[in-house]
Amino acid sequence: MMALTHAAISAAVVGFSLQTSDPIVMAVAIAASQIPDIDTSTSSIGQILWPISRWIEKRYPHRSVTHSLLFTIFLGVISIALWWKYQIDAKVLAALPIGHLAACFSDTCTKQGVQLLWPSPLWCVFGLNPRRRLTTGSPSEYWVLVGAVAAVVINFALIDGGGLGRFTSESLGLRSGIVDTYQQKASSNQVFAIVEGVFTSNSSDASGKYFIASQAGNEFVLMNRSGIYQTGITGQIDARKLTTELGQPGQQQVLALSFAEEEVQTKLLAVASAHPNALILISGQLTIDSPEEVSIAPKPGQLEVAKLTGNNLTLNHCPLSRIINKLGLQFGSGNLELKIITPSPKL
User: What single-letter DSSP state applies at residue 226?
Assistant: First the structure.
């Protein structure tokens, strides 16, 4: 019973401390949790490694040398040596001393305690009341086991949703943590923002779900069915609270196009044909030959995605579908950056 409890506690501690649910890391953590009890031949690991456990058992008291900080340091040195020699994943190796240490500390809650500071004969026990300490197979241990398993499940759920860091930063409203989440996930998943805030133009409610089209420093360019907005005091949405939600798997790529007195529409249509199920956002600047033939009207309260000043056409996250027909047979010069998001998000 205690072996199972140790395994759950170590898996939970390693998962939270290393921010991982990798099965190899978890396996090493569980194996490390059994190492302290190699000092007795009646334990699960002691029966498997009977010659070793019997040798230790004859020379050292139970819960002494193998339950000590010194032994944790020994395992840490082994981990560093393995990393240095074979470049094994650092989290896998770190799970060895962390898993061992978690199991040792959990044993300080038992009636006997452990010689955590071995070779000092001092027994380390957590809790002043002996009646409140754990005994193997007691109802209290079952509750500890349930709690540890629950912690493992919670860690898996948090990792699937971006990790404890994301959960904490979003709960506290830390924009830097949300930016990190977007940067990590946007290449493989569509990322949506759940916004609580107001439109800066009229202070009306802007709360709702938006697709994050791009990052703008510590702010975001957001899209929904109504339009395109940027967060921030100088943007169109003052987001008092913003959390993220992962959507379906997707890909993003950036395509650079250069024009030297070329027909603009032809090149853009070729990109659209090559990516029929994508959202394509255009940023950059072109000098066009017949600006009087192009009519662009900004949408009040939204990000100005297209602006015409004389012969200069400036685009800022402008959807290809919004500008393509306005260009007609325009010839232009300049550079555009096309952000291609596949598949097109459901707004």
Answer: S
Tokens of 265: 């529409």
Name the more confident of 198 and 150. 198
Distance CA 308, CA 1 (A): 73
* Neighbour count for residue 133 (Cβ, 10 Å): 18
Strands across the sheet containing 251-263: 251-263, 331-342, 279-288, 312-319, 306-309
Whether the Cβ atoms of residue 338 and residue 320 lie closer than 8 Å to each other? yes
Cβ-contact 252, 279 below 8 angstroms: no
Q: Exposed, middle or buried by CB within 10 Å (0-12, 13-18, 19+), for 33?
A: buried
Q: How confident is the model at residue 133 (pLDDT cuts 50, 70, 90)?
A: low
φ/ψ of 108, rounded to 5, equals: -70, -15
pLDDT band with cut points at 50, 70 and 90 for residue 1: low
Are 191 and 246 within 8 A, CB to CB?
Answer: yes
Whether 96 and 78 have beta carbons less than 8 Å apart is answered as yes
Mean pLDDT calculated for residue range 149-163:
66
d(CA 181, CA 151): 22
Letter for the amino acid at 344? S
* Domain covering 185-249: architecture: Roll (2.30)
Confidence category of residue 172, pLDDT binned at 50, 70, 90: very low
Compute and round to an integer the Cα radius of gyration of the chain: 30
Delimit the domains of the chain by residue range. Answer: 2-160, 185-249, 251-342
Which are the contacts of 117, defined by CB distance < 8 A and separation ≥ 6?
A: 68, 69, 124
Residues 108, 204: Cα–Cα separation, whole Å: 57
Residue 284: Cβ within 10 Å count:
18
The pTM for the full model equals 0.55
